[in-house]
């Protein structure tokens, strides 16, 4: 990364367990793509992405939300929940959920390939957070035999930090859904696959508490 875009005390380190509430924004959003790598630029401008996200976060406006808490039985892992308005039941349009984040761990080597990275210049392996996701098929948009199962993966890494505590994360989530008999009978096929590469910032705070979805 270019030194012009790095804060003085930038560090890729992540705490273990990795916790908090986050607002997530798809990297394909045009207003973020133009900030990330403006025309003629040769390196990512993470600070510009962060500042643009803050403008939309205040609305509030976001692609996804997630919350992570330390695993209740202790250790270095964390669990959580994910919400995404574009993961929907194809017949009702109802958001699928709840989607749980399970078995999350901070690891020294998490792979971010071309699909998971915002730009080819950031493809690689490094410190990050990795977990599985699991759709509760008894929840919203899944009842009455609509959805049989839903599993996938979730990962995040820190890409920029400032001395005053501001942070920008990059991540990727995928979910493969298997449709139940009701949807198959209506001609929707066997299922669908969702995936979103994203930017993430920590949720806004009100009276010292992060605003967003809760794990339980």
Helix fraction, binned, reads 10-25%
Q: Can you count the beta strands? A: 10
- Mean pLDDT across the residues is 88
Provide a count of the helices.
Answer: 3
Question: What class, by secondary structure content?
Answer: mainly beta
Q: Stretches where pLDDT falls below 50 for ≥5 residues?
A: 1-11
Topology (elements, then pairings):
Layout: E1 20-26, H1 30-36, H2 46-57, E2 64-70, E3 78-84, E4 99-112, E5 124-135, E6 147-161, E7 167-179, H3 181-185, E8 191-202, E9 205-206, E10 209-210
Antiparallel strand pairs: 1-2, 1-8, 2-3, 3-4, 4-5, 5-6, 6-7, 7-8, 9-10
Helix pairs in contact: 1-2
Short description:
This protein has 216 residues and is mainly beta.
Description:
- The chain has 216 residues and is mainly β.
- It has one domain (3-210).
- The chain has helices spanning 30-36, 46-57, 181-185, and strands at residues 20-26, 64-70, 78-84, 99-112, 124-135, 147-161, 167-179, 191-202, 205-206, 209-210.
- The strands form two sheets. The chain has an eight-stranded antiparallel barrel with strand order 1-2-3-4-5-6-7-8.
- A hairpin with a 2-residue loop joins β9 (205-206) and β10.
- α1 runs antiparallel to α2.
- The longest helix has 12 residues, at 46-57.
- It is globular and about 55 Å long.
- Residues 1-11 have low confidence and may be disordered.
Please give a handful of descriptors for the protein shown.
11% helix; two-stranded antiparallel sheet; 10 strands; eight-stranded antiparallel beta barrel; disordered N terminus; 3 helices; globular; 216 residues; single chain; mainly beta
């Amino acid at each position: 990364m270019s030194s012009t875009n790095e804060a003085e005390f930038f560090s890729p380190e992540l705490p273990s367990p990795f916790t908090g509430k986050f607002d997530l924004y798809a990297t394909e959003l045009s207003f973020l793509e133009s900030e990330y790598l403006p025309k003629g630029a040769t390196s990512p401008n993470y600070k510009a992405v962060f500042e643009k996200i803050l403008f939309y976060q205040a609305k509030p406006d976001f692609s996804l939300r997630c919350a992570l808490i330390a695993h209740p039985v202790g250790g270095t892992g964390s669990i959580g929940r994910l919400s995404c308005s574009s993961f929907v039941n194809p017949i009702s349009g109802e958001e699928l959920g709840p989607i749980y984040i399970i078995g999350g761990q901070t690891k020294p080597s998490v792979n971010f390939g071309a699909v998971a990275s915002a730009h080819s210049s950031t493809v690689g392996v490094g410190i990050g957070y990795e977990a599985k996701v699991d759709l509760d098929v008894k929840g919203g948009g899944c009842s009455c035999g609509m959805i049989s199962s839903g599993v996938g993966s979730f990962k995040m890494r820190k890409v920029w930090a400032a001395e005053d505590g501001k942070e920008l994360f990059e991540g990727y989530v995928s979910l493969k859904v298997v449709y139940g008999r009701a949807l198959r009978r209506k001609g929707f096929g066997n299922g669908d696959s969702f995936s979103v590469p994203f930017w993430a910032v920590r949720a806004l705070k009100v009276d010292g508490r992060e605003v967003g979805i809760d794990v339980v």
